[in-house]
Write a structure and sequence with these properties.
- The protein is of the alpha/beta class.
- It is built from 8 helices and 6 strands; from the N terminus they run E-H-E-H-E-H-H-H-E-H-H-E-E-H.
- The chain has a 6-stranded mixed beta sheet.
- The longest helix has 16 residues.
Length: 221
């Protein structure tokens, strides 16, 4: 039996030239969450991220907050789907909403519609098929839960974590998207993996946020 603690990366740099960099708030979120997880008694024996910079930077902050040093594994199954390339594929012939990559509300409204089409196979020549995405997320789950660890701390992204949670629930793609779009930065999802079953035991937890710290640490993109 393996307990997976999967953290969504901290706030990245939406609207900037390079999204894949934590903002100042994102770094603060990661450190604060690490401290909160330390207070909860979390002592992982395996550490895993995807290959993205924002995930690695989040793990660094978590480890600092936990007061730990560790060897960190990488698995590309924890990477986010390429939302910019997916939107570009959908609107390669035009029709993209104005401000789609700059205005957060427009972006996520458009992404909701396009991901639904992608899941149904209705986006021509996507950067990755929905089937390929779900298969690599499942490969990451198996990698994290392989023999040799009882407690795993991982950093991933909203889409991949949403799929981990939806798969544990046996839910369809629409549930994956609903889970993804409500997920906070540096939120914790917990999974318990046994040889026969994966159980979702916690979702979108933010033990580092209370009324006093909400303004400093709460964000969604």
């Amino acid at each position: 039996m393996v307990a997976l603690t999967v953290v969504r990366h901290g706030q990245a740099s939406f609207g900037a030239a390079d999204y894949d960099v934590l903002s100042e708030k994102g770094h603060a979120q990661a450190y604060a969450l690490g401290q909160a997880l330390k207070a909860q008694g979390l002592r992982p024996d395996r550490f895993v991220t995807g290959t993205l910079r924002r995930q690695k930077e989040t793990m660094a902050g978590l480890l600092e907050g936990l007061g730990l040093t560790a060897e960190i594994e990488e698995h590309p199954g924890l990477d986010e789907y390429d939302f910019a390339a997916l939107l570009a594929a959908r609107f390669r012939d035009g029709g993209a909403p104005e401000g789609m990559m700059q205005d957060a509300k427009t972006h996520f409204r458009t992404l909701r519609a396009v991901v639904g089409e992608w899941q149904q196979g209705a986006v021509a020549d996507p950067p990755e098929t929905w089937a390929a995405f779900t298969a690599r997320v499942e490969a990451a789950r198996a990698h994290m839960a392989r023999d040799g660890a009882q407690s795993v701390l991982a950093v991933s992204s909203g889409g991949a974590i949403g799929q981990l949670a939806a798969a544990a629930l046996g839910a369809p793609g629409a549930a994956q998207l609903a889970l993804q779009l409500q997920m906070k930065n540096c939120a914790v999802t917990r999974l318990l993996v046994t040889p026969r079953q994966t159980w979702l035991t916690g979702f979108n937890e933010t033990p580092h946020i209370d009324a006093a710290t909400e303004a400093a640490f709460l964000s969604y993109s």
